[in-house]
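quick one, 309 residues, struct below
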Amino acid sequence: MRVSTNMIFDQGVRALQTQSAALLYTGQQIATGRKILTPADDPVASARALDVTQSRSVNKQFTTNQGYAEDALKLVEGQLDGAGEIIQYARERVLAAGNPALSDVDRKSIATDLKAQFDAMLAIATTRDANGDYLFAGYKSDAAPFEKTIVTPTDPAVSPFPSADYAGDEGIRTMQVSSSRFIPVSFGGERVFGAGDDSVFKVLGEFISALEGGGAVSDAVSTALGGLDTSLDNVLTTRAQIGSQLVEVEQLGFIGSDLDLQYATTLSNLQDLDFNEAISRLTQQQTFLQAAQQAFLKTTGLSLFNFLS
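---
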């Protein structure tokens, strides 16, 4: 077969283009730090990297949710800590009011103190979070779960007393903190502050009324102590659950961190460039390109006149 000058020229150009393209590709790899520049370079690895990236993104969202859940639970725990202290203090004042040596003025002074504790408890029961949602309203988080009212008994011998009825529901708002775990981050007010005769507000209100009535308070003391003990149990039970959930969130955080490290390692293995190998390859490709250029120049410089001269 005759080898024409054009064929020799075309072969030389193709060789130069091939070497230049390889050199450019390696340079782009080094510039980006990635060994896969387009999915076509390695379709299997690219698909795997996409799956891992998506899984890592989901895991990061769960980690973010865990932080939100922890903040929400700590806010509730802090409010319940305050509620427990109020109940314990109110219990001490109820015990003090049972002293038969106290005068009516002394008892009314205790009643005034307990009214302040009532308002403090109501403030806790109507706490809002950073989003403006009421913590203890269940699903009805946009409306105050408790509102103070003054009850005026039909019996004129019984003094009016403060009260607060629950207006929320028993819905429990949750947050997804893992692929299979939705953790409660709020609680219904009746669960925490009691309902009906067991409501801490009714217990305090009725005892305040008994103190201001000026009569015997021994029975009222006994009733109030029982009600406050029940209220304290409700608070402590909820706090125990929150403590358990905080531990769970912390453990899920550790697991999430381990998963993120695994995902990062996998992505690194799939995508990250071995710079030592790439630089060595770049040097080799530069040598090949220079050799191809020299060969091309020598080949294209040949002609019949070189031999006739």
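The chain has a mean pLDDT of 84.
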